[in-house]
Amino acid sequence: EPEVTQTPSHQVTQMGQEVILRCVPISNHLYFYWYRQILGQKVEFLVSFYNNEISEKSEIFDDQFSVERPDGSNFTLKIRSTKLEDSAMYFCASSEDSGGAKNIQYFGAGTRLSVL
Amino acid sequence: KQEVTQIPAALSVPEGENLVLNCSFTDSAIYNLQWFRQDPGKGLTSLLLIQSSQREQTSGRLNASLDKSSGRSTLYIAASQPGDSATYLCAVYPLSSGSARQLTFGSGTQLTVLP
Questions:
Q1: Residue A103: what pLDDT?
Q2: Average pLDDT, stretch B65-78?
Q3: Which of A36, A108, B68, B99 is found 20 to 30 A from A24 (Cα to Cα)?
Q4: How close, in Å, is residue A80 to chain B by CA atoms?
Q5: Contacts from B45-50 at CB under 8 Å and sequence distance 24+?
Q6: Of A50, A105, A2, nearest in space to B33 by CA
Q7: Which 3-state string (H, E, C) describes chain A?
């Protein structure tokens, strides 16, 4: 069964460093998403991406964050200068379309980011 | 702003019991509602998607219902098994959104099924 793949599974970084989290969405999907879950808190929406541009973003997604689809298969989330409060599990998701049953979002296993 | 609440926060039942997990949302103008399962330290596995025009969806031992007017959804698990132990998350898709649909999640119900 097709699945969303995320790498690495765990990333440890020093505060102020740049990190890139990588995702390979399901191949025929057109919509891509990033969410995060701080330990013990709800899963929160960060950004959605369609047709090579950001479709929506939350207030969490400030200038320190960026997303990119550098080729036909990868979807990345970059955090330019990490802060302690960026420590969280980051989930990538994709959906075939935005309407009806094709709206169903499939999630990857997540990347745990630890900022020291 | 949409708020999603799930009760109970935790539930422990003996194997074989039927159980109901509850989800409520403050804004009934939703597009779809999705139930997920999350195992400790793992990703989110989609269980069921209910479109706004539907009242329920079934998959195996799982049945999810949706009552938009009252802002509620329930996930019914029949004949629970220890392998069902996980956190169950409810998430809603807003009606007023752009082309892509951002999910708003509840905090989940942590289910433990005792053998």
A1: 78
A2: 95
A3: B99
A4: 23
A5: B45/A107, B46/A104, B46/A105, B46/A106, B46/A107, B47/B75, B47/B88, B48/B75, B49/A101, B49/A103, B49/A104
A6: A105
A7: CCCCEEECCEEEECCCCCEEEEEECCCCCCEEEEEEECCCCCEEEEEEEECCEEEEECCCCCCCEEEECCCCCCEEEEECCCCHHHCEEEEEEEECCCCHHHHCCEECCCEEEEEC
User: In B, which residues are within 8 Å of A106 by CB distance?
Assistant: 46
Task: Give A77→chain B minimum CA distance, Å.
Answer: 17
Q: Which of A42, A55, A106 sits opposite B106 (nearest CB)?
A: A42
Taking 70 as the threshold, does the pLDDT of residue B99 lie above it? Answer: no
pLDDT digit string, tens, across residues B12-62: 999 999 999 999 999 888 888 999 999 987 889 999 999 888 899 999 999
Q: Which residues of B touch A (CB under 8 A)?
A: 31-32, 34, 36, 41-46, 49, 51, 89, 91, 93, 97-108
Q: Which of B92, B87, B74, B95 is nearest to B113 (CA)?
A: B87
User: What is the pLDDT, as a whole number, of residue A97?
Assistant: 81
Q: Which residues, other chains included, contact B76 with Cβ-Cβ below 8 Å and sequence gap of 6+?
A: B18, B19, B20, B62, B63, B64, B65
- Which residues of chain A are under the pLDDT cut of 70? 100-101
